[in-house]
């Protein structure tokens, strides 16, 4: 049954889907943490926390699926990427741990709530910034000799990776702000709308800067974006980003509630498509393709059988949880 299907491409798409699902679902609740210092203690912070309380931990399921899938299906890529990016990946995991602990303890230890709020914000910022640095370091290239990482401990730390890290922080904060526009009412919603305008402008500016720099990082990037006939298709991506940006600001000023969040997600989707154009079919850009990094065909078949059962279950319970906890929220809960 699977002999006529290129399972390596199928698995690349599954992992890409898992990564994007994580960005979409965990991005806005990390964004809430990033925005936390700008929210007033008490009602505003409690309302923001309640808006993500039912779903935040389940969102990270997709991070586990993406990382586990990379390890199981593309073991060579995992063996090369992890040593190159140990520092930002460890920072990301520590940030997520601090954030998760703070989320739970700020309710159970009200005497130290200010401390837990700082930990919640710090963990969110560190996790988001580390994710951006990881992406930037991967895009700028990893030194490989034979089948092993050949670079140094600090190769990931460059102006480009820091720029991408800043972009992810701005983008997640934008998702968090537009989530609050969609889920809250009154003064908090108005303040979130103001935050969204500034963060939208910052996010679009960073997208433009990263997009302008990326083709110069690797010769293949330039070819994939600007060589004919590729240019006829790739030119549509920045055009769609411009259209989505204009619609985003118009929707915010018109008082829309759901549309700004959906258009912010659209900006992330278009950025993700641009990332795919730049690196596919490489898994380590410019060094290792998905076929070179893939596990044996029999292993891919075995894993695909399990994934074909588990992924629909994850999608169903995730959709159900969002459906149950739909609607507006305040400091007392959903209503």
Automatic annotation (TrEMBL):
It is a multi-pass membrane protein. Its main location: membrane. Its EC number is 1.10.3.-. The chain crosses the membrane at residues 12-39, 84-102, 114-139, 159-182, 194-213, 225-249, 261-281, 301-325. Keywords: Cell membrane, Membrane, Oxidoreductase, Transmembrane, Transmembrane helix. Signal peptide: none annotated. It is found in: Cell membrane. GO terms for molecular function: oxidoreductase activity. NCBIfam families: cydB. Belongs to the cytochrome ubiquinol oxidase subunit 2 family. This is Cytochrome d ubiquinol oxidase subunit II. It comes from Methylobacterium goesingense. The lineage of its organism: Bacteria, Pseudomonadati, Pseudomonadota, Alphaproteobacteria, Hyphomicrobiales.
């Amino acid at each position: 049954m699977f002999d006529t299907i290129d399972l390596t491409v199928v698995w690349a798409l599954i992992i890409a889907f898992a990564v994007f699902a994580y960005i979409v679902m965990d991005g806005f609740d990390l964004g809430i943490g990033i925005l936390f210092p700008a929210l007033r203690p008490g009602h505003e912070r409690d309302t923001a926390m309640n808006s993500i309380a039912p779903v935040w931990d389940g969102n990270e399921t997709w991070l586990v699926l993406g990382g586990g899938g990379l390890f199981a299906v593309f073991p060579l890529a995992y063996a090369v990427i992890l040593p190159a990016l140990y520092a930002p990946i460890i920072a990301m995991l520590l940030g997520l741990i601090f954030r998760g602990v703070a989320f739970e303890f700020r309710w159970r230890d009200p005497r130290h709530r200010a401390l837990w709020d700082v930990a919640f914000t710090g963990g969110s910022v560190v996790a988001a910034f580390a994710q951006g640095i990881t992406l930037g370091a991967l895009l700028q290239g990893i030194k490989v000799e034979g089948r092993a990482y050949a670079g140094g401990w600090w190769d990931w730390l460059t102006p480009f990776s820091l720029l991408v890290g800043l972009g992810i922080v701005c983008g997640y904060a934008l998702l968090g702000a537009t989530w609050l526009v969609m889920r809250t009412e009154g003064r908090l919603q108005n303040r979130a709308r103001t935050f969204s305008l500034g963060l939208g402008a910052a996010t679009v500016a960073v997208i433009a800067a990263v997009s302008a720099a990326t083709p110069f990082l690797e010769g293949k990037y330039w070819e994939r974006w600007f060589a004919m006939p590729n240019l006829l298709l790739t030119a549509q991506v920045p055009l769609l980003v411009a259209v989505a940006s204009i619609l985003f600001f118009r929707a915010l000023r018109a008082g829309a509630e759901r549309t700004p969040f959906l258009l912010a997600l659209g900006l992330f989707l278009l950025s993700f498509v641009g990332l795919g154009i730049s690196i596919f079919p490489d898994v380590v850009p410019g060094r290792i393709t998905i076929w070179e990094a893939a596990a044996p065909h029999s292993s891919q078949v075995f894993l695909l059988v399990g994934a074909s059962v588990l992924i629909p279950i994850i999608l169903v319970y995730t959709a159900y949880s969002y459906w149950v906890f739909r609607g507006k929220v305040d400091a007392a809960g959903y209503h």
